[in-house]
Amino acid sequence: MYHTLSQYWNKIQGSLFPELEEELGPLTEKQMQLISILEMVRIEQFLTSSFGCVGRPPKNRPALARAFVAKSVYNMATTTALVDRLKSDLSLCQICGWEQRGQVPDESIFCRVFAEFSASELPKRVHNALIKKVYENRIIGDLSRDSTSINARERPAPKKKKSKKAKKRGRPKKGEEAPKELKRLDRQLKMTQQERLNDLPKNCDVGAKANSKGNREYWIGYKCHIDTANGDIPISCLVTSASLHDSQAAIPLAEETASKVTSLYDLMDSAYDCPQIIEHSKSLEHTPIIDVNPRRDALAKAEFKAEAKAQKTVNWKPPEKIRYNQRSSAERVNSRLKDDFGGRMIRVRGNVKVACHLMFGILALTADALLNLVR
């Protein structure tokens, strides 16, 4: 992996930057970061050409795709800000693919093309190809699984009322048991991957989570579930309703990651402490390391506290706890996505468009994290 990344970086630093500086003048750090990311992801290769098609030719899709990557790198809040920046910054305009400011299309075209990219899942396809190329025939040590809240500017969808099933009156006959409805995690073990993804709720709704001080916080929007590899590199991403519990997306996310890379350890917090998730992780030939959740068992809580105190007294840490500390990479990725790559700037509506917006940020973050390994 490092050899492949070094070749990318040597090409960018040795030949690409000097050539662009001759044409555009001195480059800022942000421009060099954007150029490096665009050169690595090569998003234009995933767009079909319209040459020879009937009708009016569409606006330059490769330049528009590169502009949306630039929007994530520059952490811009709106498409209006992106268009204004392109029309005022000639260097950025040329990096994206337009020779002159007057060639930059109107905001309405940006919005229409973004809807096309959302429907075709363009950034997700580019990200999948990048991950498979970099990690081909390589093994990842640790995968950290976690989710983060995504605030959206839209109304939460009304909750569907559960239909009450008519129960048979009286006690069941001797030897007869009432049929129990399978929980989602049990159903997921018997589903195909597409069925698992379709079963997850994706509408905007209200989510709740306890913060570091134990207080409950609420938000309206979605939840982004991410698998992160060593080096703070996002491998897979799912966007679901905000109210979905973290554990419900673990199995579909694990399957998606397993289709791209080979890994050894699954690191998860206590929200994922479920027998079904542990069983599925082992079925993928992984070793699950999950923080124990005693739930409402007072005796188990007391035992864990006593065990932790004894380990601290003798100054001993089990190997699992040392490896579990690597899970902090998931927190760093969540933080970078929100603070540096547009995760807090959601101005679109609907799961499909929100997922596309976040995936442009994930794509830029992944390329930047990979290049950081060799910079």
UniProtKB/TrEMBL annotation:
Residues 158-172 have a biased composition (Basic residues). Residues 173-183 have a biased composition (Basic and acidic residues). Residues 208-365 form the Transposase IS4-like domain. InterPro entries: Transposase_11, Transposase_InsH_N. Residues 147-183 are annotated as: Disordered. Residues 34-114 form the Transposase InsH N-terminal domain. It comes from the Bacteria. This is Transposase. It comes from Candidatus Neptunichlamydia vexilliferae. The lineage of its organism: Bacteria, Pseudomonadati, Chlamydiota, Chlamydiia, Parachlamydiales.
